Structure formats: structure tokens, C-alpha cells
């Protein structure tokens, strides 16, 4: 774990460095999918860390309020998930049933974005795109119940 980097990031974002904040941030930095507070909690328990869920929520709130982390409600049950802001550009595929999130390897919109700029004379600075569906495991469950 390379915590010196985190300290610098925290200072830049006006966040006081604490051990617990570093631990939660490390989990987010090492995840390639957005995580809910509960998923962070479970990862910490597996690592033998017994931080409470309410502590994790408090830390996440600080990160979000300082603009370090982005909170979004991309799953159908409106479960909030958190990811580090400014991580590489990503698109997600979300299961409507279990809320599982896959990250797409590449952006399908790069070429489209350029042609849209040409057509509209906009300078496009960003875009958002999420896909929703039913994952293979949930499909098996649903078909099994018929
Ligand atoms: Zn599913
Ligand atoms: Zn994209």
C-alpha cells in the first residue's frame, strides 16, 4: 500500500489525512468498479479491519463533499455507489436484478463524439453512458423459476 500518494491527494483536496480515510480510499483506488458503502465494508472485514459501516459512510461523505469521490445511483434499486473522481473514463453495464456492475473495456462513443463535434460545432468535454440489463446468473435464476 503506497499511502504517501494518498496524503498528497488528500492535501490537494483539503482533506485531513487519517488512517481510516487512507484505508477506505485505498479500497476505492484498487477497485475497477464503483462500490457501495456495504461492499467497502465487506472488503474491509475480509482484510481483518472492523471499521463500522457508519464510519465508512462518514468518510465517503467527506470524500464526496471535497470532490475527491463521485457518488452515483446507477443500479436499479438506487443503491448509491462510489468511485474515485477522474479515474480513467469508463462505461458500465449494470444488472437490473442483482446490481452487479461490469466495466466496459473501451469507450464506444469516441468516433461518434468527433462526428458530433463536427456536426454541431460543440467542443464536447464529457459524456455519460450506462447500459442496463440482466446478467447471466440472474437469467438462470429467472428461467429456473418458470
Ligand atoms: Zn444479476
Ligand atoms: Zn465514453
UniProtKB/TrEMBL annotation:
It comes from the Bacteria. GO terms for molecular function: DNA-binding transcription factor activity; transcription cis-regulatory region binding; zinc ion binding. Keywords: DNA-binding, Iron, Metal-binding, Repressor, Transcription, Transcription regulation, Zinc. The keyword Transcription regulation applies. SUPFAM superfamilies: Winged helix' DNA-binding domain. Zn(2+) binds at residues 95, 98, 135, 138. Fe cation binds at residues 89, 110, 127. One of its GO terms (biological process) is negative regulation of DNA-templated transcription. PANTHER family: FERRIC UPTAKE REGULATION PROTEIN, ZINC UPTAKE REGULATION PROTEIN. This is Fur family transcriptional regulator, ferric uptake regulator. It comes from Sporanaerobacter acetigenes DSM 13106.
Amino acid at each position: 500500500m503506497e499511502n504517501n500518494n494518498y496524503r498528497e491527494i488528500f492535501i490537494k483536496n483539503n482533506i485531513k489525512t487519517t488512517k481510516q480515510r487512507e484505508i477506505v480510499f485505498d479500497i476505492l483506488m484498487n477497485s475497477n468498479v464503483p462500490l457501495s458503502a456495504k461492499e467497502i465494508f465487506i472488503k474491509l472485514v475480509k482484510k481483518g479491519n472492523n471499521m463500522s459501516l457508519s464510519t465508512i459512510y462518514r468518510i465517503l461523505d467527506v470524500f464526496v463533499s471535497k470532490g475527491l469521490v463521485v457518488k452515483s445511483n446507477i443500479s436499479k434499486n438506487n443503491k448509491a455507489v462510489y468511485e474515485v473522481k477522474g479515474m480513467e473514463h469508463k462505461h458500465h453495464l449494470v444488472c437490473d436484478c442483482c446490481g452487479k456492475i461490469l466495466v466496459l473495456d473501451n469507450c464506444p462513443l469516441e468516433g461518434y463524439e468527433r462526428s458530433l463535434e463536427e456536426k454541431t460545432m460543440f467542443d464536447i468535454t464529457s459524456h455519460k453512458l450506462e447500459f442496463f440489463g440482466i446478467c447471466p446468473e440472474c437469467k438462470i435464476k429467472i428461467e429456473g423459476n418458470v
